[in-house]
Amino acid sequence: MTTTALTTSFLSTALISSDSQFRAKKGRCSNIRIASSVDCCSTSRCTSIGESGESGNRILCGRRGLVFMASLPCFLPLPADAAQLDGIDYSIMKREIGKVLSKGKAAGMLRLVFHDAGTYDTQDSSGGMNGSIILELDRPENTGLNKSVKIVKKAKSEVDTVIPVSWADMIAVAGAEAVSLCGGPTIPIRLGRMDSMEADPEGKLPEETLDASSLKQCFQQKGFSVQELVALSGAHTLGNKGFGNPTVFDNSYYKILLEKPWVNSGGMTNMIGLPTDRALAEDKECLRWIEKYANDQSSFFNDFSSAYKKLVNSGARWKTV
Ligand code: HEM
Asked: How large is the average pLDDT for residues 263-289?
């Protein structure tokens, strides 16, 4: 055997056998020493992974990282989406979120996703899905989101004992789980986002008083088309804004936008929808999509899934080796 083959063989045996130890001793990275003893991760590349303070552990502790490291030449960069391949991490996250999430908490969870990711600005690449929402809870637009953060925190602290995970990944997955729990589409989420250590710039989320043209411009600046704006706004089917059952994710948002119950009537019907929701129904370009989604729920589910994936990848910085 060549030296490389010997080293690889040693790593495979040592790391894989220590992996079962790791799983048995939940939360303890008994294999860190083994990996570092062959100095596999002392290059600047590996150091840069560790910058987040957690991805380094992830590489050393996660079974995927270990097997991957053992089966490839050392220092070969991991593909940016390697974490997506790790079904084990993903199912642990989903399991823990499932324990703390209920239909009644789903709307707040989905809103939390938008308030983390929706700060993204393509012009200067600031903001986005980076977990910074936890530093921004005192902003007026984030009122009430501390409850959703607490729920994610519970699940995150459990996941962290097995494999360190970023807030951004946890929130992205929690939002997708909220949608599916309420009967919406199942949306697979790529993992590996890194958290920002600082708050995003202020004033990036759309105000509820925007007219259609400003709303379109606002979403365009975040990288979204008009169709994606309309599909994402369908998230308002959850919650208490009057778009059908508050805990059922379906296309009633669009059906009610077409009915316009607020026209020619005062009183309670004025409580239905936000000004931005109503503005969409007055815009020709948006109306085309509203009609499509009102008539075809599966097309809404497909387009919502794609737009949601784009939302939770907005401005994300990914762990790489
Ligand atoms: C189009 C621009 C948007 C505006 C102006 C907007 C604004 C708002 C406002 C003012 C609320 C009410 C908060 C409250 O009850 O106090 C709300 C609720 C909500 N928003 Fe949005 N939002 C927008 C887009 C989105 C998007 C893109 C998503 C997710 C993909 C989203 C998810 C939600 C959800 C699920 C709720 C209900 C929260 C609950 O009842 O707890 N919103 N939004």
From this structure: 87
Inter-residue contact 63 to 35 (CB < 8 Å): no
199 phi-psi bin (left φ>0, alpha ψ -120 to 50, beta other):
beta
Q: Which domain holds residue 18?
A: 3-78
Burial class (CB in 10 A: 0-12, 13-18, 19+), 212: buried
Q: How far is the CA of 275 from the centre of ligand 1 (A)?
A: 11
Where is average pLDDT lowest: 62-71, 156-165, 173-182, 222-231?
62-71
State the distance from the centre of ligand 1 to the C-alpha of 81, rounded, in angstroms: 29
* Amino acid 265: pLDDT: 63
Which tokens belong to 177? 């789980």
Q: Is 115 a catalytic residue?
A: yes
Query: Does residue 244's CB lie within 6 angstroms of at least one atom of ligand 1?
Result: no
Look at residue 86 in the predicted model and tell me its pLDDT.
67
Q: Does 239 sit in the ligand 1 pocket, CB within 6 Å?
A: yes
Q: Can you give the CATH number for the domain in which 257 is found?
A: 1.10.420.10
User: What is the number of structural domains in the chain?
Assistant: 2
- For ligand 1, pick from 236, 272, 274, 311 the residue to mutate: most ligand atoms within 8 Å of CB: 236
